[in-house]
Design brief:
Protein name: Sulfatase
Keywords: Hydrolase, Signal
Bound molecules: 2-deoxy-6-O-sulfo-2-(sulfoamino)-alpha-D-glucopyranose, calcium ion
Distance between the termini: 45 Å
Pfam families: SGSH_C
Number of helices: 17
Strand content: 5-15%
Strand order of the largest sheet: 7-6-5-4-8-1-9-10-2-11
GO molecular function: hydrolase activity
Family: Belongs to the sulfatase family.
Number of strands: 16
Largest sheet: 10 strands, mixed
Shape: globular
C-alpha cells in the first residue's frame, strides 16, 4: 500500500520513460495506459464544537438516541480513531494547528481574537503548489478571510457565522445569502464539485460547518426533531467541583451561564414570544418572517409549558439540559445530511475510491458533563475530537484505531498521502501507518495539551490557562495564571474525572513519573518557555501577569 502511493508522484515520469520503449508497430497516438495510482483527492469535512459523544459510530449514550448515520458511513468505509485529541480546545488555535501541524505557541495563535497570518505555511497551499486544485467553503474564523492562504477558491462565513441568512465573504466582497448555513455550505461544496472541479486533476476540498456551535439553531426541518425525546442526564450534571478549583471557577454551566433567550430560546411568559436574556439580537432579527414563525412556533408549546410549570431550581436545570440537547443535536442532523450528500456525490461520480474523506471537528464539547456546555478544559469531553477517515483500498473498512492522535498530525498525513516530502518543522506525524492498522512501534504513548485563553464572563467562560499530559491511563494537569493548581486523574477508576488525586499518597509515584514525562514532552514540543516552565507553582508576578492579560483580552473579546 505504502509503496504504491509513494510512487504516485513519479507515475507521470514513469509514463514518459515508457514512451521511449514503445515498439515501432504501436501507433504514436495510442492513449497512455491508465495510471495505476493517482494522487488521491482529499475532502476535509470539519464541524465546529461537535463532541465525539454526539456521533453514533463512537458508540455513545447520545448516539443511540440521536444517531448520525452518514458520519457513521465513513467509519464503515474506513477508520474511526478512538483516541483523537486536540492540542488546545478552542476554535482559532485548533484550526491554525490543523493547517500548520504546529502547537499553538509555534503558529502563534494561542487564543481566539488573535489573527492568523495567512501567509504562514499550510498543507493546503503545499498541495496546491504540487498540482492540486484547492477550495474551502464555510467557517474560516482565523481572520477576515482566507485571502493569501494559497487556497484557490473560497467562500466563507463572516467570523463565527450565523445559522440563518449568513453573511458570506468571497474575494468579491460580503453579502447575505438567504438560507441555512449548513445547507449553504454544502450547496457551495457540491456546486464546486459539479462545476468548478477540473476532472483529472486531484483536489483538496474543505467543507467547514458552523454547526453545532453556539447558539445552536437547527434548520426549520429539524427544529421539532428531538422535541419530546428524553435525553439521559449525565451522572455528573450536578457536579460540585470538590478538589478542582479551576473547574469551580468556570462560567460555563448550562443551568446558570447559558443565555436563556439567545441560546435556549426560552420565553418570558406563557403565550408570549418575548425572549429571555438575548444579548446578540442579530441572530434572530436577520431571519425572515417565515423562518421566525416556523422556528419559534415549533418551540412555543415547550416554552409555554415550561413557563406554566413553575419549576424548582433542579427541575429547571434539567429542563434546560433537555432543551440544549434538542437544539444542539438538531443542528447536528443537518451536518449529518451534509456528509451524506457529499458521500453520495462521491459514489455517483466514481471518485469514491480515489478520495480520502475526513470528518472531524475543531474540538469536542460538553453535553452536560460537569454541568457544562463549551470546551477549553483538558477534561475528556472537550480534549477529544471526532476523527474518521476513509480511503477505500488503503484504509481497511471498519478499522478502529486505538493509537492516540492529535490535530498536529493532519498536515503530515496529507503531505504523505499526496506523495510530498515530509516537512521537518511539523510537530505531528503522518497517520498513514496508523490508518493501515499497523501503528509504528515508536508511536506516541502520551499526548500534550496547552490552553491559554482566560477571559471572564458567560460569553467566555473563565477557564484558567493550563497545560498537561495524558497517557493511556493517567492525566496530569497544571493550571496557572488565574487558578494555580495541579490535578491528577486515574482514568481507569475515574473516567468522569471527579476525583483529583494530586494529594493522594498512594498516587505519588505515578504523579512523579507523569511530571517527568510532562517535562520531557514540553521540551520535545519546545513549549518549555514562559511563565509555567518549572514544576513549581507560578510566581505571584506570573499570576498577576496572567490576570492582566485576561482583563485586557476581556475588553477586546466578544466573538
Ligand atoms: C463565543 C461564545 C463562546 C465560545 C467562543 C469560542 N460566546 O465567544 O461561548 O466559547 O465564542 O468558540 S458568545 O456569547 O459569543 O456566544 S469557538 O468555537 O470559536 O472557539
Ligand atoms: Ca469550536
Amino acid at each position: 500500500m505504502k509503496q504504491v502511493a509513494l510512487l504516485a508522484p513519479l507515475a507521470f515520469l514513469a509514463l514518459g520513460a515508457c514512451a521511449n520503449f514503445r515498439s515501432a508497430a504501436e501507433p504514436a497516438t495510442v492513449a497512455p495506459a491508465p495510471v495505476e495510482q493517482k494522487r488521491p483527492n482529499i475532502i476535509f469535512i470539519m464541524s465546529d464544537d461537535h463532541a465525539q459523544t454526539a456521533i453514533s459510530a463512537y458508540g455513545t449514550r447520545i448516539g443511540k438516541i440521536a444517531p448520525t448515520p452518514n458520519i457513521d458511513r465513513i467509519a464503515r468505509n474506513g477508520a474511526l480513531f478512538e483516541n483523537s485529541y486536540v492540542t488546545n480546545s478552542l476554535c482559532g488555535p485548533s484550526r491554525a494547528t490543523m493547517l500548520t501541524g504546529l502547537f499553538s505557541h509555534l503558529h502563534g495563535f494561542t487564543k481566539n481574537g488573535q489573527t492568523f497570518d495567512n501567509a504562514s505555511w499550510n498543507w493546503v497551499r503545499a498541495l496546491g503548489q504540487s498540482g492540486y486544485q484547492t477550495a474551502l467553503f464555510g467557517k474560516w474564523h482565523l481572520n477576515y478571510s482566507p485571502q493569501g492562504s494559497g487556497i484557490d477558491t473560497w467562500a466563507v462565513l463572516d467570523d463565527q457565522g450565523k445559522y440563518y441568512n449568513p453573511d458570506i465573504i468571497t474575494p468579491e466582497g460580503k453579502k447575505v445569502v438567504e438560507g441555512y448555513a449548513t445547507d449553504i455550505t454544502t450547496d457551495l461544496t457540491l456546486r464546486w464539485l459539479n462545476e468548478q472541479r477540473k476532472p483529472g486533476q486531484p483536489f483538496v476540498l474543505m467543507m467547514h460547518h458552523k454547526a453545532p456551535h453556539r447558539n445552536f439553531m437547527p434548520a426549520i426541518r429539524h427544529v421539532q426533531k428531538y422535541i419530546g425525546t428524553e435525553f439521559p442526564v449525565p451522572t455528573n450534571y450536578f457536579d460540585h467541583y470538590d478538589g478542582r478549583p479551576a473547574a469551580a471557577a468556570q462560567e460555563m454551566t448550562v443551568a446558570h451561564d447559558m443565555y436563556e433567550g439567545h441560546d435556549l430560546k426560552m420565553t418570558t411568559k406563557a403565550g408570549s414570544r418575548e425572549l429571555r436574556f438575548n444579548p446578540w439580537t442579530d441572530d434572530f432579527n436577520r431571519m425572515t418572517e417565515a423562518q421566525r414563525e416556523a422556528y419559534f412556533g415549533a418551540l412555543q408549546p415547550g416554552n409555554d409549558a415550561m413557563n406554566r410549570a413553575n419549576l424548582n431550581e433542579r427541575e429547571m436545570a434539567i429542563w434546560k439540559y433537555q432543551r440544549y440537547m434538542d437544539e444542539y443535536l438538531g443542528t447536528v442532523a443537518a451536518v449529518d445530511e451534509s456528509v451524506g450528500r457529499v458521500l453520495d456525490w462521491l459514489e455517483a461520480s466514481g471518485e469514491m475510491d480515489n478520495t480520502i474523506v475526513v470528518y472531524t471537528s475543531d474540538q469536542g464539547f460538553y453535553l452536560g458533563e460537569h454541568g457544562w456546555f463549551d470546551k477549553r478544559f483538558m477534561y475528556e469531553e472537550s480534549l477529544r475530537t471526532p476523527f474518521l477517515m476513509q480511503y477505500p483500498g488503503h484504509i481497511p473498512a471498519g478499522l478502529r484505531v486505538a493509537a492516540p492522535i492529535q490535530n498536529i498530525d493532519y498536515a503530515a498525513t496529507f503531505l504523505d498521502y499526496a506523495g510530498l516530502p515530509a516537512r521537518k518543522e511539523i510537530q505531528g506525524r503522518s497517520l498513514r501507518d496508523v490508518a493501515d492498522g499497523t501503528p509504528p512501534a515508536d508511536w506516541r504513548d502520551a499526548i500534550y495539551y496547552h490552553y491559554y485563553e482566560y477571559v471572564r464572563g458567560p460569553g467566555n467562560h473563565a477557564v484558567s490557562a493550563h497545560y498537561g499530559i495524558k497517557s493511556d491511563r493517567y492525566k496530569l494537569i497544571r493550571f496557572y495564571g488565574h487558578v494555580n493548581a495541579w490535578e491528577f486523574y486515574d482514568l481507569a477508576s475515574d473516567p468522569d474525572e471527579m476525583h483529583n488525586r494530586i494529594d493522594d499518597p498512594a498516587m505519588q509515584p505515578q504523579i512523579a513519573r507523569m511530571k517527568r514525562r510532562l517535562t520531557a514532552l514540553r521540551q520535545k514540543y519546545r513549549d518549555d518557555g514562559g511563565p509555567a516552565v518549572t514544576d513549581a507553582l507560578a510566581s505571584p508576578a506570573a499570576i498577576a501577569r496572567g490576570q492582566r492579560d485576561a482583563e485586557s483580552a476581556a475588553g477586546l473579546h466578544h466573538h
